[in-house]
Amino acid sequence: MTTAHHAPGEARPGGRTARTREAVVAAVLEELGESGFGGLTMEKVAQRAGIHLATVYRRWRCVEGLICELLTELSADVPLPDSGSLAGDLRALARAIAAFYGEARVRSLIEAVVSAAGRDPQVAAELRSFFDERLALAGRMVQRAVGRGELPPDTDPVQVLSALGAPFYYRILITRRPVDRDLADSAATAVLAAAHAGAYTRKADGPSPGG
Amino acid sequence: MTTAHHAPGEARPGGRTARTREAVVAAVLEELGESGFGGLTMEKVAQRAGIHLATVYRRWRCVEGLICELLTELSADVPLPDSGSLAGDLRALARAIAAFYGEARVRSLIEAVVSAAGRDPQVAAELRSFFDERLALAGRMVQRAVGRGELPPDTDPVQVLSALGAPFYYRILITRRPVDRDLADSAATAVLAAAHAGAYTRKADGPSPGG
């Protein structure tokens, strides 16, 4: 299941830009499989993808930029459910996130990017924009729930989805224990109850704090 | 406000072990103030504290071990409230956490440790034990709430407190935006509603998943 999504102004799928991206993502995956994160370099990726090194640097800037691109690609396979109820949507998405980070390979990617973001503002910006995009897409399930009258009208989708994701990153980065379906179901139950209780409504005095 | 706490087998406050620890924590703080995290070394800390380098290595193992010790020291100043209601306790603790991580210095400490934990299993173990200890202490407010009949009897304190903390680490490590009082109040409201809804009850088939 793929949810295709393209930022405004981005080349259409099938164009030259898309083919470059595809080749680079494939090369990053292969390089990671062969040499791991420690062995990943811009040079090796450019060579394997058959793309000019200057192009790779211009578009992805650093190794972690490549990892963010790969995360974007992989996360496009996390389905954004539309089950007809917020409870069903939250549970399905939480389980999909649990399955996503249940893979050691994906878990180590997010660890690497978070670790790098602490040292490099450009990586931090990449990481933030990866999450901003995902949160905006997933937020539609909250907008639908508001439309159905399931939630207060001033509910902020970004806050709801951030709250759904937060326990996974806490488990991965802080307590460093396995991500499982129990965590997913607990997160979904918690966010549903909290959203009903108005924990994620926008403050009257400003825009969304962005998770 | 200090909540003194000592692991079983640890020397009593005032003993030689405690004085060593005190000198090392003070030296780490001073070194960080002078040269930042990048300039912190075991040697400089040992010299400034007037402690044998071998002792510092044996007890703290690496620079991040020192940082965890400092975090333990600093977090002992985060009060664990006992207001008489779970709502009051959660809100007070969330605001105290927000104030704690509202300081750029403390925020950069946790970033450094999380970043290092991704590369070094020993640091990961230090980080986990820091949180395990904090969660166990803070869990008492949940036990009191269960005792007052405010929550289901099988509510797991570790899950409740992990859920209270998760949004802060998501904000610090993932979206990398400021931690503020709005986040604290949202987290407290969310966790209270979720706990009432039974999102944090123990599964019948096993022990607590540890946050």
Automatic annotation (TrEMBL), chains A, B:
Q: Where are the transmembrane segments?
A: none
Question: Per UniProt, which keywords does this protein have?
Answer: DNA-binding, Transcription, Transcription regulation
| Sequence ranges assigned to domain HTH tetR-type in this UniProt record | 18-78
Coiled coil ranges: none
DNA-binding region ranges: 41-60
Query: Per its UniProt record, what PROSITE patterns does this chain match?
Result: HTH_TETR_2
Q: Pfam families given for it?
A: TetR_C_11, TetR_N
Q: What is this protein called?
A: TetR family transcriptional regulator
Name its species. Answer: Streptomyces kronopolitis
